[in-house]
Structures are given as C-alpha cells and as structure tokens.
Specification:
five-stranded antiparallel sheet, Band 7 domain-containing protein, 296 residues, Tetrahydropterin Synthase, Chain A, alpha+beta, 4 domains, 5 strands
Length: 296
C-alpha cells in the first residue's frame, strides 16, 4: 500500500474546472508518469530537419462533365504530399499542416479537372487524361503553402475513364466496327485467293493454247486408264483439222487462180509445211513434184 500511495503522490493534481488542460504534447502527465515508472522511456519524437514528411491521400473519385455536358468522365485523383520544416516540428504537427491544406488542394484540383475535361468528347478519356495531368502539373508547380519555415508541396495526378453509360455505348459501337473489319478482312482474303487462282488458271490455259496436246494431257491426268481412247480422239481430231485446213487452201487457190499471187506462194511449199506442222500433222519430206503445179 505504501508503494501505491507513493506512486499517487508523484502524480500531478487535476486542473481546476474552467482551466485549460496543463499537459501538452511532450510534457509530463499521469499516463506518461506511469509508463516511465513501469516501462523504459519511449523513443523521442522524430525531428524533420529539412528531411520532410511524405503522405499520400486515399484516391478521390470524381464525376466531371465532358464536352457538351450530356455525358461525363469518371476520374480518380491521387494527391501526394511532402512537408518540410526547419523549426523541428513533430510528425503530428506536420500532419496537421497537411490536413489544413487538404480541402483547398482538393477544391483546386477539381476545378482544374472540370475545366479541362469539358474540352473533350466523352469517348476520349486518354486525350482528356493527358491534358488534365498537364494542367494539374502547371497548377501545382509552386508549393501551395510556404511560410514559417514550413513548405508544403502537393503532387496531383488524375486517371480519367469512361462512365458505365458511355462504356456500354462504346461496346456496341466497337462490336459493329469489329464485325465490319472482320468482313473486310474476309473479303480481302477471298479476293487474294481468287486472284492467285485466276493467275494460275491463266498460265495453265495459256500454256494449253500454245500446245494443242495440252487438253488431251488434262484428260489423261483426270482418267489415266483412257489412254487408248484419248489417243484415238486426238489423231482423229488432227486429221479433221488437217482436212479442214486443206479445204481452206483449195478455196484460196481457186480464188487466186486468176491472179499471179498464188504463183508467189506456190514457189515454195514452206508455208504449207509450217502450217501443217503447227497443226500436229505428220509432214513428208519436201518433194519437187507438187500436184497443183502440174495442173497449171
């Protein structure tokens, strides 16, 4: 009991009614006395001699109007504080300085964001965010508070996004544009394939026109076992073509009998031989006894 009485005797008396509390931050009090008696003395308050206190506010969500005020942007604002003091203030005092400036900084930031965001369409959050952050950097380039050896700086950043209403409209538009783009890509692929196939067929047909056996080769490629029939058809068609050609030659000869043009052609059988060779008809060796010359 003596120990308890001795402890209570060391405690300061309660202040009278109407008198301010005598214990201030850092001074002795009943709780501090008990702590010092039973525990080691607490660590001293941190002194920020031009070191500064850094603090970050919780994100501040804003809804600001876009161009035309019909739609809005959804904005998330973050504020980072830095307080430096040369008079040895405690952390509590520095935080109090931040709290005193916080409402004014938030109000200024909102005014800047609203003013800049109104210049942009509601579907351009990226462009709006870039312009807003540039304006905030200029706005808070100078410390908002600088006096009594205390300097407070605020770094304000904003993230601008779409509202749910605008996002749903953009989704619908994006879906339509995506379908159009997909159809255009499909059409381009079809045209590219058709062009490639056309060029391949053109080369195939051109080669076939240069060689009269090409179409018979195609038939054999489709039906390899029909060699005999294809060969017979090929020879018969060549015979018919040769006969048709000879009929045309006879008609030309008959038409030119009255003039001397045929004499120039008949002087050499080279023209006829080349024509027959082109038709694929076997041509005998050159002969000097030409029938139509004997008739003349």
């Amino acid at each position: 009991m003596r120990f308890v009485y001795r402890l209570l005797g060391r405690l300061p008396r309660r202040a009278a009614a109407g008198i301010a509390h005598p214990w201030k931050d850092g001074e002795d009090g009943p709780i501090g006395s008990v702590r010092r008696f039973f525990q080691p003395p607490p660590a001293p308050h941190s002194i920020y001699d031009e070191q500064g206190l850094h603090e970050r506010d919780a994100p501040l969500e804003l809804t600001v109007p876009a161009r035309g005020d019909a739609f809005s942007f959804q904005v998330v604002v973050t504020v980072a504080w830095c307080v430096t003091s040369g008079d040895g203030r405690t952390t509590t005092g520095l935080k109090a300085d931040i709290a005193a400036e916080r409402p004014k900084i938030h109000e200024r930031a909102e005014e800047v964001i609203r003013r800049v965001a109104r210049r942009f369409e509601p579907y351009l959050p990226g462009e709006a965010e870039e312009a807003v952050n540039e304006a905030l950097t200029v706005e808070f380039a100078r410390p908002p508070h600088q006096c009594d050896d205390v300097t407070i700086t605020a770094t304000v950043k904003a993230k601008v996004g779409l509202t749910e209403e605008v996002r749903e409209l953009r989704k619908q538009l994006g879906r339509v544009l995506l379908e159009i783009q997909a159809k255009a890509e499909i059409d381009a692929m079809i045209m590219a394939n058709m062009t490639q196939a056309r060029d391949a067929w053109r080369g195939f047909l051109t080669e076939g026109m240069e060689d009269w056996t090409a179409r018979f080769a195609v038939r054999l490629a489709e039906s390899p076992r029909e060699v005999a029939g294809v060969m017979t058809t090929m020879v018969e068609e060549r015979r018919q073509d040769a006969q048709s050609f000879l009929d045309v030659v006879k008609q030309v000869v008959a038409a030119q009998q009255s003039v001397d043009v045929f004499d120039l052609v008949a002087a050499s059988d080279g023209v006829l031989r080349i024509a027959l060779e082109r038709l694929g008809v076997p041509v005998p060796p050159p002969a000097s006894d030409l029938p139509w010359l004997e008739e003349r």
